[in-house]
Amino acid sequence: MEIDGVEVAFSEGETILEVAQRHEKEIPTLCYDPRLEPFGGCRLCIVELEGARNPVASCTTKTTEGMVVRTATDTIEAYRKTLLEMVVSENREVDVSPLRGYAASELADLRDKYAVNGTRMTGAKSGANKTDENPFILRDYELCISCYRCVRVCAEQEGDHAINVMNRGFHTQITTEFDGLLKDSACTFCGQCIQTCPTGALADKKALRAADEIGDAIPDKTRTICPYCGVGCSVDILTQDEKIVGIHPAMDGPANQGALCVKGQFAYDFVHHSDRLKTPLVRGDDGDLHEATWEDALDKAAEGFRKVNAEHGRHSIYGIASGRAPSEAAYMMQKFIRVGFGTNYIDNCSRA
Question: What are 245-276's pLDDT values in tens digits?
Fold first, then answer.
């Protein structure tokens, strides 16, 4: 097939968009997520197909031998700009904090690329916010563009079907069963809907607490592995001034491909919590805990292990590693039990 005058190869079943992306052709999308079945709703990915009466959606059109495709003609780019103007005109705002979610700035980036100012088309705003008591997910549907990525990722990737679509046209809304609270639905608070939303209509409530603190600063990203279980999900830790302000799943993570559970997505407050111990505590003869040096604390712990082992045998000692500790700490913990005491009495708190 031919794309923009260049002959390219394709595999059976591939779409025009997939082939174009593989050959580094920029085709804008808003409703597209490579992990989901193509939807063709936003129409931003339209291209000219020789022999076709009208432009076609590249995300849903399968490639065939001899196709001749043009991805960025003046007419196509004008269509895209008009579509973006209509989308932007319905939203309360387009510029949102990057802490809202992984894809939250996609609409803003396209608006800037096509120099859409949002003033040529005006009118009523669609969408209504949902006041939800859950601590994790903000549902700001005044920013929703009905791309349905949240609905589709919940159904196709998670299999939860916790959210769906109600009404049609301008009155389309994303909703739960009987339009109730998210916490009363089948939602597992994995956060996948947040991370696929291209406008920030769904947002990470916990991360947004730090939005005012960091302002326009772009948080640093550090790739690591979630320690909460043995799956090995890849995550990007967002930090500002050495403080964790949010978590993004790694879309290219080999084990998770953008998916996380509720713990991997939201359970990071303990790292900087005011109750977290900063020095070892050792119980004295008076029965109270007192601050101690690491040397004294480790000597005290070693003495206790030796005493129990001598009096009751190796099977009296059992280790439980913490899912909040790094993976290296879990490895050392099992070595300590298996090599140090010759037993397999070791488990992890997050195994269940």
Answer: 999 999 999 999 999 999 999 999 999 999 99
Which three-class secondary structure state does DSSP give residue 35?
A: coil
- Tokens 């669609």, located at residue: 126
Per CATH, the number for 84-272 is 3.30.70.20
Burial of 207 (0-12, 13-18, 19+ CB in 10 A): buried
Lowest mean pLDDT among 147-161, 285-299, 318-332: 318-332
Q: How far apart are CA 46 and CA 61, in angstroms?
A: 10
CATH number of 2-72: 3.10.20.740
d(CA 126, CA 22): 35
Phi, psi angles (nearest 5°) of residue 23: -100, 20
Cα 93 from Cα 276, distance rounded (Å):
38
* Closest by Cα among 90, 139, 137, 142 to 111: 90
Q: Residue with structure tokens 């708190």?
A: 349
Domain boundaries, the chain: 2-72, 84-272, 281-348
Whether 225 and 325 have beta carbons less than 8 Å apart is answered as no
**Residue 272 CB partners (closer than 8 Å, separation 6+):** 243, 244
Task: Tell the residue number behind the tokens 């969408």, with chain if given.
Answer: 127
Count of beta carbons in the 10 Å neighbourhood of residue 167: 9
Least confident of 34-38, 128-132, 278-282, 342-346: 128-132
Q: What percent of the chain has pLDDT over 90?
A: 80
Residue-wise pLDDT for 84-134, tens only, equals 999 998 888 999 999 999 999 999 999 999 999 877 887 787 888 887 779
